[in-house]
Amino acid sequence: MNAIAALAIGMVFIGCCSNVVFLELVVKEDPGAGNLATFLQFVFIAVMGFCTVGKFGTAKRNIPFKQYLMLVGFFWTSSVANNYAFDFNISMPLHMIFRAGSLMANMAMGVWILKKRYPPLKYLAVFMISAGIAICTIQSSGDVKAPRETHKDAAEEERLQFIDWLWWCLGIAILTFALFVSARMGIFQESLYAKYGKHPWEALYYTHLLPLVFWLPTAQNLVGHVKIATETPMVEVLGVTLPRQVLWLILYVVTQGLCISAVYVLTTECASLTVTLTVTLRKFVSLLFSIMYFRNPFTLGHWIGTLLVFIGTLIFTEILQKCVAIFLPAPTPVEKKKKK
């Protein structure tokens, strides 16, 4: 492994893990700020891409504009839906576990659209991932509570709890929708790269630049959450005083840019197996940190579900099989003859 690959792996853990922390701080301060956080992330990456990849508008595209419009539709929808789900009583650990089920959605889309066939072990892995997500979802359903004061009237409190639960069910539906939209985007992206060649940095730039117009209808929502952010308590950082939520948003956007850039560099320097293993381990570390640092509720059922998801992911990506092959010596020619 070269120095660039090692640095990229380090930046994936530092950038992506810290990004999850700052996103959780953002949504704890204002549960509806997911849309604003996504918008700022898109603006930041689009501006950086305009200066580097786009060369201030002078660079020529390798992939036709019409194809990017399709890709942008998938990417924007999945990104906004994933962050908007926080407004529906979805906890950060459940959010991360759900997103870890992307392999399941990719396989389902592959079977449905591309008519692919997979070996039995892949189906076992997807079953484990699906079961793990289902267990975590069921466990989380008993701890649904919106950030509000408890009502004194028992009947009214029961009614509000039922509304909270319905709101949470809508959040689960949004996460599921985002999961399959993201999987469909992956298939479309794969077909684009097969036809026009791999241009990941260009794709990253255009998938963040073109969707900015989609936020025009949500301008009132963005302004409202900006106002909430500016009214949070003031904090001093390096001699600069600014609202606390503004600080969290800045750190979220910067670490998101670092995270995405590190993953893209890693895909150019390492085999896909290394990339998948790094991203999977990063998700597990982020989940553990979210549980311990933010004291998010996590029962035995959650742990069982999480282990099923991550073991299923390792089996699906064949990381577990390769690890077993490393530690178990290959049979000698004599042993092979005895078996015959």
UniProtKB/TrEMBL annotation:
Q: Name one GO cellular component term.
A: Golgi membrane
Return the protein name. Answer: UDP-xylose and UDP-N-acetylglucosamine transporter-like
Superkingdom as given in the UniProt entry: Eukaryota
Q: Name one Pfam family in it.
A: UAA
> Which topology term describes how it sits in the membrane?
Multi-pass membrane protein
Ligase as a keyword?
no
In which family does this protein belong, per the annotation? Belongs to the nucleotide-sugar transporter family. SLC35B subfamily.
Write out the entry's keywords from A to Z: Membrane, Sugar transport, Transmembrane, Transmembrane helix, Transport
Segments spanning the bilayer are: 34-56, 68-86, 92-114, 162-182, 203-226, 246-266, 300-320
Has keyword Nucleotide-binding? no
Annotated compartments: Endomembrane system
State a single Gene Ontology molecular function: UDP-N-acetylglucosamine transmembrane transporter activity
Q: What's the chief localization of this chain?
A: membrane
